[in-house]
Queue: 3 jobs
Job 1
Amino acid sequence: MKPVNEMKMIFESRSCNESFARSAVAAFIAVLDPNIEEISDIKTAVSEAVTNCIVHGYKDDIGKVYIHAKIFEGARVWINIRDRGCGIADVKKAMEPLYTTCETGERAGLGFSIMESFMDKMKVRSNPGKGTSVTLEKSIVSKGK
Amino acid sequence: MPVDIDIDEKSVTAYISGEIDHHNAGALRAKIDEAVEMSYPEVLIMDFGAVTFMDSSGIGLVMGRYKLMRDLCGRIIIENAPRSIKKVMRMAGIEKLLSAENKKEGSFV
Ligand SMILES: Nc1ncnc2c1ncn2[C@@H]1O[C@H](COP(=O)(O)OP(=O)(O)OP(=O)(O)O)[C@@H](O)[C@H]1O
Ligand SMILES: [Mg+2]
C-alpha cells in the first residue's frame, strides 16, 4: 500500500538529539489531529527506540540514527528507527520486561515494554555487529478528542 | 538546571521541570543526590508537577533514588505526577510511591 505521506531523517547519535527526534515525529503526524495522550504515547515510544540506538547500539561511539515514518490511509502511522551499531544477540531476551545490560543501576529495562504497550504493534530485527531496527505502528483514532 | 531543591530538617524536595530523558537524567540525578548526601533526609519528595515528558530514563531516575533512600533507611514520595507521567510509571509499578493525594485525583487503572 502506498503511504499518503512519508519522511526520512538521519542524525548523529548524540543525546541532545533525543528531544529533537521525538518532536520531529510528533510534528510529522500532527496533521492526523492526535489527542494529547496519542502524541505522548508516540513521543515516548520514539524516545525509547532512539535512546536505545544511542545508549546501546553505539555505546561510546557516535554513529547515525535513521528514522523513516509513513502515514497510511485511515490515519495509520508507521515508524522505523534503526542504527548500524552493535546489534542484539538475543532479541527475545532483550524484550523481556526489566531485562537490561546496563550495569549502572540507572536503567529500568523497560524500553521495549513501553514501546510495545504504548503502540499498537512493535517489531524488532537485529543482527549482531550490523545493527538494530525497530518498527512501530499506531492508528490515530481520536480526531483530537 | 531543570530542578529546584528545598532542604529542611527531615526532607529534601526536588521540584523537577521540563523533559526527563536520557539526555538530562544525569544532571538531575547529580543534583538530587548531592542534596540527599548532604542532608541525609528521612524522606525524599520528588515533585513531577512541572514535568512535561518522561520516558524510561525517568523510571531509572526514580528507581535509583529509591535505592539510595532505602540505603539511608529513608523513603521516597512522588508528588503531582501528571496523567501521562503516571502512565509511564505504571509500567514499572512505581506508582505505589505516589503520595496519597496524587493517587486519588484522576484514577488511572
Ligand atoms: N539499538 C540497540 N542496540 C543494541 N542493543 C540494544 C538496542 N536496543 C536495546 N538493546 C538491548 O536490549 C536491552 C533492553 O532494552 P530496553 O530498552 O528494554 O531496556 P534498557 O534500555 O536497558 O533500559 P530502559 O529503556 O528502561 O532505560 C538493552 O539493555 C540492550 O542490551
Ligand atoms: Mg531502553
Note: The radius of gyration of chain A is 15 Å.
Job 2
Amino acid sequence: MIFDSKIIYNKKISENFYHLKLKIKKNLVPLPGQFVNILIDDSCDIFLRRPFSIFNYENEKLEIVYKVIGKATKILSSKKKGETINFLGFLGNSYLDFISNNDNTSNDIILLGGGTGIASLNFLCQWLKNKKYKFTLLYGAKTKKEIFFLKNFKKFNTIFTTDDGSYGNKGFITHYLEKIVNNNSLIFACGPEPMLLTIKNLELKNKIYASFESYMGCGFGVCLSCVIKVKTDNNGFEYKRVCKEGPVFDLNSVILEKD
Amino acid sequence: MEINTTVKIGKLILKNPVMPASGTFGYGLEYKNFFNLSELGAIVTKGLSIIPVKGNKPQRLIETSSGILNSIGLQNIGVENFINEKLPELKKYKIPIIVNIYGKTIDEYIRVAERLSEVNIDAIEINISCPNVKKGGIQFASDKKAIKKLLYNIKKIYTRTIIVKLSPNINPVEDIAILCEEYGADSVSLINTLQGLAIDIIKRRPVLSNIYGGLSGPAIKPIALAMVHKVYKKVKIPVIGIGGIMTYKDAIEFLIAGATAIQIGSANFRDPLTCIKVIDGIKNFMKLNKIDDINLLIGTLNY
Ligand SMILES: Cc1cc2nc3c(=O)[nH]c(=O)nc-3n(C[C@H](O)[C@H](O)[C@H](O)COP(=O)(O)OP(=O)(O)OC[C@H]3O[C@@H](n4cnc5c(N)ncnc54)[C@H](O)[C@@H]3O)c2cc1C
Ligand SMILES: Cc1cc2nc3c(=O)[nH]c(=O)nc-3n(C[C@H](O)[C@H](O)[C@H](O)COP(=O)(O)O)c2cc1C
Ligand code: FES
C-alpha cells in the first residue's frame, strides 16, 4: 500500500536521532516488527526509498525514530511539519507471528535491543503491555547520549546498559541476557549483526527471534536484493528476503556472515 | 477524442505499449496490491531457468548517481515452479505474459522454451547477457554463432512470439539485432544493464560481492535511446525500448526514437505505480497533441 502522510512533527531527540510522527488516513494498522519504505525526495538523486522500522502506532499516528547517517537521513531530518511523506507500508512480517496465545501465561519474554534496533522493540513493548504480557527489555547503547526516550522505556521493566557505563549497567546487554534467561524464556532481539552473533554464540536452547536489516532495493519482494542465508533441512541454505519473509527470523536458522 | 494505443510485437497484440522490465516485477503477482495488472500492455517475468537458481552472495545492489547497480545473479524459482505456482493466477489477468528466459548452455534455453510452449505462454524474451559455461563463460551476447544456434533451435520448438533481449555491453549492438532478425526473432528488446563497478573507499573493496554489476535507471537513458534508435534504423522487426524510463515523457522519447513498445525497470522500485502513470501520461499526451494513433509516433525522429 502506498501512503501519502502529513508530518505531525519531525524532532531532534538527541545528537543524531530524530523522531518523526505521521498522520495516517488509511484503515490499515501495522504490527510490531513491520517497517515502512520512505521516498526521500522527488529528484532521482536519492533513487531508492529508505526502510525504517515502526517505532509506534497509536490513534492513526505512525512514529519512526531514525539516526542521521548519510544523505537520505540528512534530507529526511530537514522535513517540516505539514509536509507530505510518501511511503510504502506496512511491510514485512511481525514479531507477533512468533508469539502464541498461551505465552502470556508465562512471564518470560525477553527483548534485547541495541542502537536503532530499539525502535521496533518499542512497538512490541507497547503491544505486550497492552495485552498484559510480562516481559523484560534489555536496552543497550554506546553512551547515555544514545539512549532516547529514557522516560518512555522506564515505564517498562527495562534493564539499561551502556558500553561506557554512563547510564545503567556498564557492558553489553548480551551479558545480562545470560543472567536473566531461563529455560522457557522467549527471546526477541533487534540490533546490529555483531550483537545478534553474540547472542547466537551463547548457544541458548531458547527460541530466539531476531529482526534483521539488509540493503533494500524495493522493500516489497521483487528485486531480491535484501536476501539473507537461511538453513534448509538438507544442511544447505536458501536465500530469503528480509523485506518479505522477514525482517523477523528464527535466529538459529540464519547463517550470519561471520558464523 | 478516440485514441488507439494498440501496438503489435510479432504475434502479440498489446493494448498499450507499456510493460515492466524483467527482474523488476517479480513474477507479476507481487504488484497486484498496488494496481490492477490487467491495465498493463503485458507482464514480463523475472528471468527463468530450467532449475531454480540461488543467485549471488549479498551485497547484491547499491544505489548510484541516478540509478542502481545490481548483481542479483538471476535468482529464480525455476520454470516448473513458475508454471505450477504462479502461472494459474497470472493467467486470470487476461493480458499477454512474456516470460524472460536464460540458460547456462544452449540446451538449457531450449528446455525452458519447450516447457513454456507446452503451457501456451504468449511470448518469450531471451536474455542473452549470460555466460555460456560450455564456452568458458563468454557471454552468449558476444557469440554470434551461439546466438544463431540458439534461435535456430528455439524456433523449432517455440512457435509463438520470440523476443531477443540485447546487451549494451557488446558493440555494435545493431549487428546482433540484424543477426536476430535474420534468424527469425520477432522482436528485439534493449537495453539490458550496462556493466559497472562501485568501490568502498575505506575497505578498498568492491561494494557488490560479485565485483561487477549491471547499471540501470535514469543514468542509462541517453545510452539506451541512442542504441534503440540505431537498431531501429537497421531492422524491420519491432524494437522494444528499455533503459531509465521514469515518466511518460521518457517513454515517448523511446517511441519517437523507434521503439514500438517500452519496458520500465528500476523505476518500479521507487514508485510501484510507474507503469500505470506512464500509460495514463501517454494517453493524455496523445489527446493534448491530437495524435489519435500511437503508431503515428513510433520512429518519427526527424533530423
Ligand atoms: C528493515 C529495516 C529497518 C530499519 N529501521 C531503521 C530505524 O528504525 N531507524 C534507523 O535509523 N534506521 C533504520 N534502518 C536503517 C536505515 O534504512 C538506513 O540508516 C538508511 O537507509 C540510511 O540512508 P542514508 O542515505 O542516510 O545513508 P547512506 O549514506 O546512503 O548509507 C549508509 C548505510 O545505510 C544503509 N542503507 C543505505 N541505503 C539503504 C537501503 N536502500 N536499504 C537498507 N539500508 C540502506 C547501508 O547500511 C549503508 O551502508 C533500517 C533498515 C532496514 C533494512
Ligand atoms: C534488480 C534487477 C534485476 C534484473 N533482472 C533481470 C533479469 O532477470 N533478466 C533480464 O533480462 N533483465 C533483468 N534486468 C534488467 C532490466 O530488465 C532492464 O533491462 C534494465 O534494468 C534497464 O531498464 P531500467 O533502466 O528501466 O531499469 C534486471 C534489472 C534490475 C535492476
Ligand atoms: S528489497 Fe527488494 S526483494 Fe527485498
Note: Residues 50 and 112 of chain B are 5 Å apart (CA to CA).
Job 3
Amino acid sequence: MGTGRLYAAVAAGGFRRYATYRVATAAGVFTNTVFGFILAYTYIALWAEKPHLGGYDQAQALTYVWVGQAMFAVMVLGSNGFEAELMERIRTGDIAVDLYRPADLQAWWLAADTGRALFHLLGRGVAPMVCGALFFELALPTDPLTWIACLVAIALGTVVSFAIRYIVALWAFWLLDGAGAMQLTWLTGVFFSGMLLPLNVFPGALGEIARLLPWSALLQAPADVLVGEADPLGTFAFQATWAVVLLAAGRLVQSAATRRVVVQGG
Amino acid sequence: MGLNSTGTTGSTGSTGDISNTGYSGYSDGMDRHFIELDRVEKVFDVRKKTGFLRRERREVRAVDSISFTVARGEMVGYIGPNGAGKSTTIKMLTGILTPSGGRLRVAGIDPSRERTRLAHRIGVVFGQRTTLWWDLPLIDSYRLMHRMYRIPDARYRENLDRCVELLELADLLDVPVRQLSLGQRMRGDIAAALLHDPEVLYLDEPTIGLDVISKAKVREFLRDLNAERGTTVLLTTHDLQDIEQVCRRVMVIDHGRLVYDGPLAGLHEVGDSERTLVVDLERELPPIEAAPARVVKVEGPRQWLAFPASESAAPLVARIAAEYPLVDLSVREPDIEAVIATMYAEQAQYAKQTEFAKQTEFAKQTEYAEQAEYAEQADPARRPGEAEETVP
Ligand SMILES: Nc1ncnc2c1ncn2[C@@H]1O[C@H](COP(=O)(O)OP(=O)(O)OP(=O)(O)O)[C@@H](O)[C@H]1O
Ligand SMILES: [Mg+2]
C-alpha cells in the first residue's frame, strides 16, 4: 500500500508539473485545433472523392481527425515527453539521483507519465474535441458505455506509449546522445500511429502490419472504439498484450543498463 | 533533542551514546566497520575515436585499490585533486556503481547488490545535482520523500520541522525549486536527504558555489546532526575549511589511491611542510645563512626563512639573534592549503613514475614492491597513515 501511495504522489506531481505551464497548454490547444481544421478539410475532400475509404464514412473520418488531435499530446505523438528528460538525465549523470532512491525507475517514470497524460487529456484533449464537435458533424456515440470503453482504450494506449518511449530513452545509457534515436521513434510513431491517415486506409500488407504494431494501440484503437468500428474487449486485449510485452522488455533493458553501464559525471 | 531523537539509527538501543562517547567506545564490529572498503577498485573503459571508424580503448583506474573503514558516528572528510576518484567512491558507496574489484560494505550491506535496501539507511547529497522536483514547490519534494521512504507521519513532521528551522527553509517551502538560488537549493537538498533518518550521510561537494554565510550554516548543521543523532558523515570537498570545521578525520586520495588517512593536523608532518620565520633586521643585509633554514625572500631589511615544520624555532632564532642585528621577528605556521598543494604535486609526480612502470609492462608485483620502496623512502611520518590504510 505504501508503494501505491508513493506512485500516486509521483503521478500527482507529474500532473501538477504540466499544469504549471498554462501558456504552453493554451498554445498547444490552439495548434491542435488549427491542425484539426486543416486535416478535417483535407479529409472532407478525400472522402468526397472516395467515400467509405478504409471502411469509415465521412462523419467517422472526421471524428478520427479530432480524436487524433485530442490524443496528440496525451500519447506524445508530436513533442517530446519524459523521454527527452530521462535521456538528458542519463547523459548528464543526474540519473544517479534517481538510482540511489528506494523506488523503481520504470514505475516511477510510468507514474509521472500517467499524471502527465491525465493532465494532457483534460488540458489538451477536451478542448479540440469539443471544438471539432461544434464545427463538424461527428460520429459520436450516445451510449455512455462506449465513452467509458474509449477512456479505457486511451488509458491502455498511454501505457503502451510510455513503454515504447521508456525503451528508447534507456538507449541513452549506451548511445549517450539519444537525439537520433528519439527522432527515429518520433517519425515511426507519427506514421504508424495513424496520425496522418487512419491505419485502415493503408493498403495491403503494409496495412496488415501497421495494424499489428504497438503504435496502433495509441490512436487507432481508441478512435475505433469510439466510432464503433472495433470490439472493445478485443481492442483492450490487443493493447494490454503490447503494454505487458513492452514493459517487460523495458525492464530487461533497464536491468542491463543499470548493471553494466556507467553513471556519467563527477 | 535528546536521546530519543536518534530515531531509527539501528537496533542497538544505545544510539544515544554516540554523541557522548563517539565511536571509540564501541566493541561491536559492525559499528567500528560501519563503512568498509577492502582493496576496492573501479576501472572505466574509455573508448576514444582515433580516426575514421577506429577506436582506441583505454582503461581509467578511477579508484585503485582503496581500503579504509569508517566507524559509526564518525565525520570524515574525503579530499583530493580533480579527477582523484572521490565522486566515483561515493557512487560505489551508494550502490549506483559496481566496483570492478575488491569488497565494499556499508552497514553490512553490499551496496550495488542491495541498492534499494541500503537506500533506506543512507542519505546522499550531490552538490552538483538535485533530488528536488524542479518544477514544483519544495514542499512537494518532501512529501514525495515521505512516501518514498515510508517515513511514519509523526517522524516526518518532526524531521521536517527541524530541518526547516535549522536550514531556514520556512519561506522557501512554497517556492518552485527552479526559482531557488544555488545556496537555497543546496539547503533544500540536504533537508531532503535527511527526512528518513539515514544512518550515514554522503555529501559530494555540498558547499560548492555557496557564499560564506551559507557555508557556515551548512557546516554548523552537519556538526549538530552528528552530535545529536550520531549520523555518520562522509563528505568530499575542495574547501579545506569544510574539513577543518566539520571533520576530525581526513582522507586524501589521489589518482585513485589513498595517500593519507588521519587527523587534519597530521598532514603537516606528512607533507614535508615548512614553517616560515620572518625577521626584520636593522638594515639591508645579504641573505642570512642559518642551515637548515633557507632564505626564500628578501625585501629590504626584511627576510623570509623557511625551515622544516618538525624543527624547533628556538635554536634557530637564538643563532640568528647572536649573529645578526635583529629588530623583530615572527613565525608563520604552514598553510594547510599549501601543504595539500605540495602533497598533490608530489603524488602527481609519483603517479607519472608508476604510469611509466605500467607502460614498460612490469609485473604487478614489481609495481607493488616499488610502491613499498617508495613508502620506505618517504618521510617516516607517512607510515602511520599508511598503516591505517590496511584493514585488519
Ligand atoms: N563515466 C566515466 N567514464 C569514464 N571515466 C570516468 C567516468 N567517471 C569518472 N571517470 C574518470 O575517473 C576519474 C575519477 O573521477 P571522479 O569523478 O571520481 O573524480 P573526483 O575526485 O570526484 O574529481 P572532482 O574533484 O573533479 O570532482 C577521472 O579520471 C575521470 O575521468
Ligand atoms: Mg567529484
Note: Residues 3-259 of chain A form one domain.
